[in-house]
Amino acid sequence: MDAGELEDVEIRLLLEGLQRVYGYDFRDYAEASIKRRLSHWLAESAFATFSQAQSDLLRDPQLFASLLQGITVNVTEMFRDPAFFKAIREQLVPFLKTYPFVKIWHAGCATGEEAYSMAIVLNEEGMTGRYRMYATDIDEAVLQRAQEGVLPMAEMQSYTRNYQKSGGRASFADYYTARYDRAILSAELKAGIVFAPHNLTSDAEFGEMNVVLCRNVMIYFKPALKERCLRLFDASLLPGGFLCLGLKETLDGRETRGAYQELAPGLRIYRKRYG
Ligand SMILES: C[S@@+](CC[C@H](N)C(=O)[O-])C[C@H]1O[C@@H](n2cnc3c(N)ncnc32)[C@H](O)[C@@H]1O
Question: How far is the C-alpha of 234 from the C-alpha of 8, rounded, in Å?
């Protein structure tokens, strides 16, 4: 067995151990990407091999927390893929407006920018007070940051451009207060959002959702885990509800495909059929 194969065995044993001890299951994450991230963590750690690290990782929750930070990819931005948010505003919100109240689940919300962008769209479209968003992630450290709603000031120029491209109607600067190098998002955006931990590998669905967004999360998963997530979202969505995936993701070829029609071709917004 060469060194690479031995490391594969060590990684498999480690992932099995982490699942048993902490209940976090990374065994169905896409192999190349999890291997890359674990190797990066190992190189920065005091350990020479995964076998050496395993004993401490299984006993020390704080060390495990640092590994978790290394595994998850938390990159996000306000109005990420502006064309997607334009379609949300112009094609999806008109349906939502026909309900007195809507529930929205952001699965894998990272630091919350996607949920805050959605809140801006809904408020501008006259839905203030008529929605509740559940924004969830496996990573409690990013949820903490999401809750704070503080963004780096350096990003505001590019976020303003995204906002305008997505059909934004106001001045993006109205939604935050600048404080030195940070932008503090306004309290009215936070009012309708509940941030909570949720693990897509093991936790149950959220009931009676009108919209589920899971963008740029399942790209890190193997096909079987993708199917699990899609079944979870299907069980969460009301008939006539909407499923939004990332631009590099698709329902094509998946078990649940037949239950949906594509609302905005190319933008990965699907509507669940009635019956
Ligand atoms: C690249 S971010 C996507 C953020 C946002 N949805 C977007 O598109 O900008 C992926 C997020 O998925 C989360 N994630 C990874 N595995 C998860 C799991 N099993 N359950 C829930 N969230 C998970 C990560 O912690 C990370 O914050």
Answer: 34
pLDDT computed for residue 1 by the predictor: 85
Residues in contact with ligand 1 (CB, 6 Å cut-off): 72-76, 80, 108-110, 114, 137-139, 142, 198-201, 215-217, 246
In our burial notation (b when 16+ CB lie closer than 10 A, e otherwise), range 34-59 reads beebbeebbeebebeebeebbeebbe
What is the CA(123)–ligand 1 centre distance, in A? Answer: 25
Pocket perturbation via mutation, ligand 1, pick of 22, 71, 72, 222 by most ligand atoms within 8 A of CB: 72
Report pTM: 0.96
Ligand 1 centroid to Cα of residue 81, in Å, is 16
Residue 77 domain-assigned? no
Task: State the DSSP H helix or E strand holding residue 183, giving kind and residue range, or none if neither.
Answer: strand 182-185
* pLDDT given for residue 138 in this prediction: 96
**Are residues 238 and 110 part of one domain?**
yes
Number of domains in the chain: 2
The structure tokens listed for 18 are 């982490």
Same domain, 53 and 122: no
Tell me what pLDDT residue 87 has: 98
* Separation of CA 204 and ligand 1 centre (Å): 16
Nearest CA to ligand 1 atom 13: 108
**Across 180-201, average pLDDT:** 97
What 3-state class would DSSP assign to 59?
helix
* CA 87 – ligand 1 centroid, Å: 22
Does the pLDDT of residue 113 top 80, yes or no?
yes
Pocket probe mutation, ligand 1, options 80, 138, 232, max atoms within 8 Å of Cβ: 138
- Residue 16's domain comprises 3-71
